Amino acid sequence: MKNLSLIIAMASLVFFNSCKYTEAPSAGLAKEMCSCLYISEQTEEYCKMVTKESRILAKWEAFPEEQKVIAKGVNFTSMAKMDEDPRYGCTLLSVEHAPENAKEFNL
Amino acid sequence: MTKHNIKIIVVLFALFSNVTAMAKVDYWPTQAWKTRSLEEAGFDRDKFQKVLDYVWEDEGNHKSDAFVVIKDGYLVYEGYDRGYHPKRKHMFWSLTKSLTSTIIGAAIHRGHIELDALAKDYYPEMNREKAKDVTLRHILNMSAGFKFYEENPINIALSDSIFVYYSKKAYKDVAKHVASLEMKYAPDEQFNYGTHQPMLAMGMLKKAINNPSIYDELPWELLFKPLGMKNIVFERDLAGTFLGGSTGWGVAKEYAKLGLLMLEDGIWEGKRILPEGWVKFATQTVAPALLKKKSEDGEMRLNVESYGAYWWLNKKLPMNKTRPYPSAPETLYQAMGFRGQTMGVLPEQNIIIVRMGSDGRKPKKKLKRDKFYKLLMNSLKPNGVTK
């Protein structure tokens, strides 16, 4: 079992390194989750369903009072926030390099 | 009566008859759609039930969230699931592209930009080999020539449609990033559907207007307010450029108004919103690049594709055996997006359908549009074709 975990972790590492932009999962998840929660005002359950692909590679936390979402991917942390004018929805405000996130993904 | 007065009367008559002759509705649904029963609209109720059975068939298959049918300008059916209702906004995904096309058309009509405007005049990054001759027209025809893989066939995570907005070097100013992408072809040489091109189109419009306060309001002033689309959200990047490729949000009944505007040849409440000839350009004229090359020449081409200017067409191309949706009329045009978002406009039947969904990526998890159109066409009584 331990060996299997190691193989999966190694495969993930190879996969991430093969990606041109490893920031995409956290950036995509922050933005898509922000929009789903605060534009569509959908349930967390539904929003998780439609962000399934991004959530494999990133984790998220919502801040309802500020209408913002922060997502952490393997090497990046991203934030998206609702605009003051709700007609413009959520904007991806930051995509920051965060190598320490790798620990959270057991890599 | 003087000759001058007669001329004025003739011109006014010509203008009036031009507008009324094309009108396919007897009222304008700016405030709300009026309703009609299925029978009044010319549908066979039992056969229409088969359409609904398929659209709302759920377990393990596709997932419909909203479904609206408009016939002759009247709402004949609306239904919702998964927490959606007439006012809960749904992501448009690539339905946004058709919205962008229409906004660009309206902006051209108002003189904000020209169809043959050169991209390099707004983005100096484009002043290079192959890119320097790219115009807004090429960009609207998905034929600018960028090296771009909308959907990587091996792994979705490697798709350029994700990186075009979610990469560190792109997200602050997406259109500028697109303008710097590698070129693979000269304009009009190769059709290559991608989210990058509408992003650049909205960037060009912003630069052409060169006034943030006007640009920020433009989609509402040109389109959403006149049509009564009150629930639209149009997201932007950090540079304040509308993300014209996929990040529009709204409700099905309001999106259907875009279909009616197209059916009405760009006229709404008697006022021209889109330039004369725009609807023909966008929804009836196949992008020239599609006719130049055989499909096997393209790396990312679909087997059967038929495209105008951010609208999917249903015309058979010379290299294909059939049109994309054989069960639907050749005159069908559609706005289509990820997870099964669809607006179908059937001019001969005077029907607009909007289906929003949360379909999965595997084929068996997707609504099969040809099956849907077959059921829809079957549900029309013989006299249901009104125009």
Question: What does this molecule look like?
Answer:
- The complex is a heterodimer of chains A (about 110) and B (about 375).
- Chain A has one domain (about 20-105).
- Chain A is about 40% helix and about 25% strand.
- Chain A has 4 helices and 4 strands.
- Chain A has helices at about 1-20, 25-40, 45-50, 50-55; strands at about 60-65, 70-75, 75-80, 90-95.
- In chain A, helix 2 (about 25-40) runs antiparallel to helix 3 (about 45-50).
- The longest helix of chain A has 17 residues, at about 1-20.
- Chain B is of the alpha+beta class and about 375 residues long.
- Chain B has a single domain (about 25-385), classed as DD-peptidase/beta-lactamase superfamily (Beta-lactamase), CATH 3.40.710.
- Chain B starts with a helix and ends in an 8-residue tail after the last helix.
- Mean pLDDT of chain B is about 90; it is low at about 10-20.
- Classes of the chains: A alpha+beta (about 110), B alpha+beta (about 375).
- Chains A and B meet through helix 2, helix 3 and strand 4 of A and strand 3, helix 6 and strand 4 of B.
In short:
The complex is a heterodimer of chains A (107) and B (387). Chain A is of the alpha+beta class.
Task: Produce the secondary structure layout.
The complex is a heterodimer of chains A (107) and B (387).
Chain A: H1 2-18, H2 24-38, H3 44-50, H4 52-55, E1 58-63, E2 68-73, E3 76-82, E4 90-97
Antiparallel strand pairs in A: 1-2, 2-3, 3-4
Chain B: H1 3-22, H2 38-41, H3 45-55, E1 64-71, E2 74-80, E3 90-91, H4 95-109, H5 136-140, H6 160-166, H7 174-179, H8 196-209, H9 212-227, E4 233-234, E5 248-250, H10 252-263, E6 267-268, E7 271-272, H11 278-283, H12 288-292, E8 312-313, E9 333-337, E10 341-346, E11 351-357, H13 369-379
Antiparallel strand pairs in B: 1-2, 1-11, 3-5, 4-5, 6-7, 8-9, 9-10, 10-11
Helix pairs in contact in B: 3-13, 4-8, 4-9
